[in-house]
Amino acid sequence: MKILENQKIQELFLRIGVCMAIFTLLSTVLIGIYREQAIIFALAGYSIMGLAVVWICYGYFKEQNRMLEYAVEQITEYLSGDHTVHMECDEEGEIYRLFHEINSLVDILNAHLKREESTKNFLKNTIFDISHQLKTPLAALNIYHGILEEEAEKSPTIQEFVHLSEQELDRIETLVQNLLKITKFDAGTMVLDQTEEYVQDMMESMKKSFAVRARQEEKQICLSGDARITLVCDRLWLVEAVSNLVKNALDHMQAGGSVWVEWKELSSVVQISVQDNGSGIHPEDLYHIFKRFYRSRFSQDLQGIGLGLPLVKSIVEAHHGTVQVDSALGVGTTFTLNFLIPTKL
């Protein structure tokens, strides 16, 4: 049997065997001398032998438990960030074999972490280079566009095409910016500057950025919530996330529509919801809307690039929050952001 090849188990059986032999021999001698009390000596001998065997087994399993606790401590240290963890596995036995496999797994994970770190650094440098290289041609195109716009005042046809080119330039700039932002989150190079902020101040700041558009399109943005509620977050990025949701709502509603932004504090979370009475999201799309570049076959929006909602998800998750969506066709959509309150974890 393979189990008997284990030296620790061999020692356990040897100790039990020696113990049984000693007590059996001792009981036999005593019974031979004191025949009249044979039953008493037999019962006493086997009882003491049983206790001795139990004690030997207890010592064995205590040692096994100590080794398992040692393994748990080492694994916990590794999960806590100490990647130099190494378990001693020089002896024989199934547990030491397990330790050897854990050491091999640690080596493999460390190799993956090293490659991942290298990839992140490469991606970080690539992002920097791309962002630097794209700024120049985009700035030049915007300048050229401004010149063409001035020259096209007397030609309605040229004015129309200049207006279309302006829309496409805006789309390209938005696409590039969102791609860079999402890629930074993926690469782990985005550092959040988290401070305690009043949610109402952030939402009012967001509303001001859409004031002109909402007025021109005859739409409303309504805010409601307790002015005393605060949230530990990166102000710029959180406003960015909510702004993307509000922009998405404005894009999918007719004139006269409304967007309601509400915040409240529950027992363990601060909740921010963005609700609209727009066209709603088709049930088939609800499971895919956070995928990058996803375009619904039911959508009437021809300008969207499919990066706004993935960016929202990345920002919220970077704050250790969650985002939920509830929608009904022809009724509207509600996005709910939940952020844990650190002091109540």
Q: Could you tell me the radius of gyration in angstroms?
A: 35 Å
Backbone structural class = alpha+beta
Q: Helices and strands, in N-to-C order?
A: HHHHEHHEEHEEHEE
> Which range best describes the helical content: under 10%, 10-25%, 25-40%, 40-55%, 55-70% or over 70%?
55-70%
Discrete helix count: 8
Number of strands: 7
The average pLDDT score comes to 79
- Low-confidence stretches are none
**Distance linking N and C termini:** 51 Å
- Largest sheet strand order: 2-4-5-7-6
Major sheet: 5 strands, mixed
Instruction: Characterize the overall form.
Output: elongated
Beta-strand portion reads 5-15%
Can you give a write-up of this model?
This protein has 345 residues and is of the alpha+beta class. 59% of the residues lie in helices and 14% in strands. It is built from eight helices and seven strands; from the N terminus they run H-H-H-H-E-H-H-E-E-H-E-E-H-E-E. A five-stranded mixed β-sheet has the order 2-4-5-7-6. The chain has a two-stranded antiparallel ribbon with strand order 1-3. The radius of gyration is 35 Å and the shape is elongated. The two termini are 51 Å apart. The model has no long low-confidence stretch (mean pLDDT 79).
Summarize the structure.
The protein is an alpha+beta fold and 345 residues long. The chain has helices at residues 7-33, 38-79, 94-151, 156-187, 199-209, 211-216, 235-251, 308-318, and strands spanning 195-198, 220-225, 230-233, 258-265, 269-276, 321-328, 332-340. The strands form 2 sheets. It has a 5-stranded mixed beta sheet.
